[in-house]
């Protein structure tokens, strides 16, 4: 925790000072945090730093190999890269199959950290053969080894999760309001204006017994909009085009978030706009309404 604070606080300040520039970088800014973390932990956790970061010195623990010796810089850097890349990139917008690889690595890290009580090694330790020990016992060979079935159990959990996710996704895509919600999500994602998009259908009950039905579109914008209200109107136009049934809803909420992601530090600003679908239609000029992809392509070719 102390080491994380040492790195995260300056990065958080840096993020707000250069917010606009970092917002345009999007999730690529996480590379900054990864490099900072890997260099800091990798060097101090190696023989150069006597196997101890500042936080490890306070806790009186040390990083060693199975022989009780300090790790060379190359191994220490590799160890912390395996740890920090999944941690910093979790949830980042990436092309397939990278999100799945990151999620699987993160699951193994968390599973082994919780359940491998014998050696306390996680994925990054197993990759380089390292152990975190009490500083007073450093230098002594370590004979304990991880219970191997842990890897089988973790792999089984991952396989089950993948199968369940595919089946569940297939089931919900054709059920209830989900086809319309997915259509809105796809169209907004294809607009190229946002990094991430989520669409929800909600129902609110008032004290007088009336029920209002809403569609909530939440996006992370690419960079920072010059005009949030205009940006919201553009997204509303895409949503109304993607799902004509939106006109039957009471409210269409567009929530726009712009943020920076430095891996170890994040921050953002958000604004929401609520209008009925008919009000959104009045705000959106005909020229701003999106064309179907084949029409746009035809116009370009012309």
Output the radius of gyration: 25 Å
The unreliable regions are: 292-302
Cross-sheet strand order for the largest sheet: 3-4-5-6
Strand composition percent: 15-25%
Largest sheet: 4 strands, mixed
Which percent bin holds the helix content?
40-55%
Q: Could you tell me the mean pLDDT?
A: 88
How far apart the termini lie comes to: 59 Å
Structural class: alpha+beta
Count the domains. 2
**What order do the helices and strands follow?**
HHHHEHHHEHHEEHEEHH
Shape: elongated
Number of strands: 6
Structure annotation, total helices: 12
Protein model, in words:
There is one protein chain. This protein has 302 residues and is of the alpha+beta class. It has 2 domains: 2-171, no CATH class; 178-301. Helices cover 51% and strands 18% of the residues. The protein has a 4-stranded mixed beta sheet. A hairpin with a 4-residue loop joins strand 5 (251-261) and strand 6 (266-275). The longest helix is centred in the middle third of the chain and has 24 residues, at 149-172. It is elongated.
Question: How do you describe this structure in short?
Answer:
The chain has 302 residues and is of the alpha+beta class. The protein is 51% helix and 18% strand. The chain has helices at residues 2-17, 19-25, 30-44, 54-59, 73-89, 98-115, 123-128, 149-172, 178-190, 228-242, 277-283, 293-301, and strands spanning 61-65, 130-134, 194-205, 211-221, 251-261, 266-275.
């Amino acid at each position: 925790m102390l080491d994380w604070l040492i790195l995260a606080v300056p990065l958080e300040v840096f993020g707000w000072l250069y917010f606009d520039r970092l917002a345009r970088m999007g999730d690529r800014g996480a590379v900054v945090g990864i490099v900072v973390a890997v260099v800091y932990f990798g060097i101090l956790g190696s023989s150069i730093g006597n196997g101890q970061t500042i936080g490890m010195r306070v806790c009186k623990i040390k990083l060693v190999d199975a022989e009780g010796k300090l790790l060379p810089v190359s191994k220490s850097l590799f160890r912390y890269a395996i740890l920090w890349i999944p941690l910093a990139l979790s949830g980042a917008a990436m092309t397939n199959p990278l999100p799945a690889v990151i999620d699987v690595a993160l699951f193994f890290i968390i599973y082994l950290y919780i359940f491998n009580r014998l050696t306390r090694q996680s994925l990054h330790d197993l990759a380089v053969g390292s152990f975190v020990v009490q500083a007073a016992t450093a230098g002594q060979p370590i004979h304990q080894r991880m219970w191997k079935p842990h890897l089988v159990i973790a792999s089984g959990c991952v396989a089950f999760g993948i199968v369940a996710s595919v089946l569940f996704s297939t089931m919900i895509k054709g059920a209830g309001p989900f086809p319309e919600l997915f259509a809105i999500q796809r169209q907004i994602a294809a607009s190229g204006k946002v990094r991430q998009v989520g669409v929800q259908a909600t129902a609110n009950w008032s004290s007088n017994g009336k029920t209002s039905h809403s569609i909530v579109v939440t996006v992370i914008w690419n960079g920072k909009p010059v005009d949030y209200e205009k940006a919201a109107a553009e997204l509303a136009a895409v949503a109304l085009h993607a799902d004509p049934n939106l006109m039957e809803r009471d409210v269409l909420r567009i929530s726009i978030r712009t943020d920076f992601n430095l891996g170890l530090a994040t921050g953002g600003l958000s604004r929401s706009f609520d209008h009925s679908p008919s009000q959104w239609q009045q705000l959106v000029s005909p020229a701003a309404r999106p064309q179907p992809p084949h029409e746009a392509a035809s116009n370009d070719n012309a």
